[in-house]
């Protein structure tokens, strides 16, 4: 027999209390726990069945940290692994580009001079800031708390901080703008992916509300 | 998962194969299907299943559909076009691996 609303809400409250706060992951864990109870513990009292089933999830709900996600916040292992899967490729690409471009522009300043003739960096950078801020605000004020929304915020934060730190620190503005513009544009692939995934989730939820 | 070290490297391929055969599946269903096919030998734990599904989703090999079932939301996974092609590659790699293992473990049978 399917679990009733109160029983589902009890599982939901337990997960929220244990920091499983992201909607998508929480919904699938609720469904898994409920399915497990319905199929395997039909003749056991709910309060006994839930204890047995939640025991299987202990290792996944335990809080942990990762440098790829955040060094000052802890997350349940299950969520941390998902966030790491989404943030690690961005982190690796971002650091690689930063190193490659810094070396390239330091050792071959002629490349920058050549590109400078063709591109207006200020316009390019301001356009990027305007577009990403617009999409960012739309996402921040949207309903739902998904892993994609979190990852979008983290990537945008890293990109903005990098732009500010590098730009305010450097003597050669043209070189810096070149690298910032290239890094930001390429990193936007990850922003677009997270933005689309977040709104797809909201759309699916709305259809099933 | 039983003999986790042996199965671990093939878990993603097992999931992709199940999705290829069944179209779309939700997490709990995948664990039950794996158990049913292997007559209880392969028990995919929650701790192994969801990180694997999330990784495949992050790699754009799986797509997600959410549906309301009874009084809760259910997340279905299905292969993307890229995922379908990748399944073929991974299955052929796995078959090759099994063949090589057979040659090492039981050389007489390999002839």
TrEMBL record, chain A:
Record keywords: Membrane, Transmembrane, Transmembrane helix
TM segment ranges: 90-111, 123-142, 154-171, 177-195
UniProt-recorded name of the protein: DUF2157 domain-containing protein
Organism: Flavobacterium jejuense
From TrEMBL, chain B:
Gene3D superfamilies assigned to the protein according to its UniProt record, in alphabetical order: Winged helix-like DNA-binding domain superfamily/Winged helix DNA-binding domain
Alphabetical list of Pfam families matching this protein: PadR
Domain Transcription regulator PadR N-terminal: 15-86
UniProt protein name: PadR family transcriptional regulator
Organism: Flavobacterium jejuense
């Amino acid at each position: 027999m399917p679990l009733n609303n109160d029983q589902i809400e009890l599982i939901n409250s337990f997960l929220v209390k244990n920091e499983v706060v992201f909607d998508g992951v929480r919904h699938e864990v609720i469904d898994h726990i409920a399915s497990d109870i319905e199929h395997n513990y039909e003749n056991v009292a709910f309060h006994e069945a839930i204890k047995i089933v939640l025991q299987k999830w202990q290792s996944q709900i335990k809080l942990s940290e990762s440098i790829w996600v955040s060094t000052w916040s802890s997350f349940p292992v299950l969520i941390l692994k998902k966030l790491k899967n989404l943030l690690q490729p961005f982190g690796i690409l971002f650091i690689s580009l930063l190193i490659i471009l810094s070396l390239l522009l330091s050792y071959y300043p002629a490349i920058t001079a050549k590109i400078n003739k063709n591109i207006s960096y200020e316009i390019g950078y301001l356009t990027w800031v305007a577009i990403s801020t617009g999409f960012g605000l739309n996402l921040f004020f949207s309903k739902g708390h998904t892993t994609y929304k979190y990852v979008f915020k983290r990537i945008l934060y890293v990109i903005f901080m990098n732009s500010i730190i590098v730009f305010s620190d450097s003597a050669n503005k043209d070189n810096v703008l070149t690298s910032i513009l290239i890094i930001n544009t390429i990193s936007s692939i990850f922003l677009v992916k997270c933005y689309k995934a977040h709104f797809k989730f909201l759309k699916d939820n709305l259809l099933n509300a | 998962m039983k003999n986790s070290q042996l199965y671990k490297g093939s878990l993603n391929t097992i999931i992709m194969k199940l999705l290829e055969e069944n179209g779309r599946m939700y997490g709990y269903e995948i664990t039950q299907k794996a158990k049913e096919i292997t007559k209880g030998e392969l028990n995919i734990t929650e701790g192994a299943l969801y990180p694997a599904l999330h990784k495949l989703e992050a790699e754009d090999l799986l797509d997600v559909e959410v549906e309301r079932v009874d009084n809760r939301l259910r997340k279905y996974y299905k292969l993307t076009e890229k995922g379908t092609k990748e399944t073929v590659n991974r299955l052929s790699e796995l078959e090759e691996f099994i063949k090589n293992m057979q040659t090492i473990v039981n050389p007489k049978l390999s002839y």
